[in-house]
Specification:
Blueprint: E1 4-5, E2 14-19, H1 22-32, E3 37-40, E4 42-43, E5 59-70, E6 76-91, E7 101-106, H2 118-134, H3 141-150, H4 154-165, H5 169-177, H6 181-206
Parallel strand pairs: 1-4
Antiparallel strand pairs: 2-6, 3-5, 5-6, 6-7
């Protein structure tokens, strides 16, 4: 696993990393020689990153090494695409420079009638569209709105929008841990509505 402070990898979303520590270079090497999957759990503080075995959040994002650039000095630039939520169950005896855990994949919890998600889903699509109208193209908001308009899976939409629009690590970790799709969707709607409200207030102050 690749524990980091302030980083949350959500399913379906890419995250770039610069890997320079020897133990994590070894992790990338081993992942490339296997299934290319690793977990990225969060750390409670920045200082914990310097501890040999700091506590990590029990729910982590598991990701696939999607892009890898190897440098001559052994460093890597990689892109990890989230593929699942996992719960870290038990740390395994040290066999490598990096830490390893036994983990289980966490499945989404859906309502009995998925049609009940449609109102919140349409609200989120509309909010993202409004966001795209307020932000420049280079922000990625227009591309996000276009992607969300084409997507059907409510869980995937909530994760993709959260990854793009929510920056606070605590909020992202909370959404990573939320398995109930209805609640996660509602939280993302609330967060994006808050972003739009702040943008509106900023624009009104400049007028």
């Amino acid at each position: 696993m690749f524990p980091l402070h302030g980083v949350v990898v959500l399913p379906g979303t890419p995250t770039p990393f610069h890997v320079f520590e020897p133990r994590y270079r070894a992790l990338v090497e081993d992942a490339l020689g296997g299934d290319r999957v690793l977990a990225v759990p969060g750390l409670g503080s920045r200082e914990a990153a310097h501890e040999p075995h700091p506590p990590v959040f029990p729910v982590a994002g598991a990701g696939l090494l999607e892009q890898v650039e190897r440098h001559e000095d052994g460093r890597f630039d990689v892109v990890v695409r989230g593929i699942a939520r996992v719960r870290l169950l038990e740390e395994l005896p040290a066999a490598h420079p990096y830490r390893e855990f036994r983990a289980e994949i966490l499945e989404d919890v859906w309502p009995a009638d998925r049609a009940t998600l449609q109102p919140a889903l349409e609200s989120l699509r509309q909010l993202v569209y409004q966001l795209a109208q307020r932000l420049p193209a280079e922000s990625g908001a227009p591309a996000l709105a276009e992607a969300v308009a084409q997507m059907k899976d409510a869980s995937a939409i909530a994760d993709v929008v959260a990854a793009a629009a929510i920056s606070e690590p605590e909020d992202r970790q909370r959404l990573l841990e939320e398995l109930d799709v209805s609640r996660r969707l509602a939280e993302v709607v609330e967060e994006v509505a808050g972003v739009l409200l702040m943008l509106s207030r900023g624009r009104n102050q400049r007028v």
